[in-house]
Amino acid sequence: MSPGPPDVPRPHAARRPAPQPEAPHVVRRDLPEGGILVISPHFDDAVLGCGAFLAGRPGSIVMTVCAGLPPEDMPLPDWDRRCGFPSARAAVLARIEENRHAMAQLRADEIRLDLLDSQYGGCCDGLGPRLARELARIRPRLVLLPLGLFHDDHVRVSDAALMAWRVLGDRPLWVAYEDALYRRRSGLVQQRLAALRARGIRATPWLTVPADLPVKRRAVAAYASQLGPLGLTPGRGDDALPEHYWRLSLEGQADG
């Protein structure tokens, strides 16, 4: 006969895990309470790169640059086909809705510019002056721009934002966020920082924000059409790692 089960001590009442905060408590002397604008190359970039920060700053504005509708007869790009769409226009219309749901999770407002994504043959000619005009109209106190890693649209939007910075000056405060997913590629962040330094732009560490938060996971999950092709499960990839921000200043300037 087989031995019976060993005596097992009676378990204590299970402790409930401490609830995760909906948004991180971030304090910095130079962090404004309002007037925050995030420049996002595509619909999902601001949420992937800044979602935790935005969750703690309701009422912030997300400006998506490549948000224009392609023409009806636009050939279907491979990326949109992999995402399951019948046409390029249907893909953008769906992403507009996904973005609305994501913004609602973060209690953020959205602005869409009408430039086409590069996969639709779009370009960023004239974007620097366009951004300068938009920012002069909105008058934010803090601008978050993509550091500008790997993807052509990201690099061009970042460079255009830097051009707008030259036009508008240091008010508002200018801070770069690391482009999610691409920042994991070996050496890319360091290469971009070195390239900015060669142009007379200094980037110094400004803020790190914990990102493994339920509210960010819900916002990322709103972009359902792209999660599979990206190989991304909300909360289990780069989107859950801490968000890093870099304060930008011109060489010779003192940091504020």
UniProtKB/TrEMBL annotation:
InterPro entries: GlcNAc_PI_deacetylase-related, LmbE-like_dom_sf. SUPFAM superfamilies: LmbE-like. Pfam families: PIG-L. It comes from the Bacteria. It comes from Castellaniella defragrans (strain DSM 12143 / CCUG 39792 / 65Phen). This is LmbE-like protein. Residues 1-27 are annotated as: Disordered.
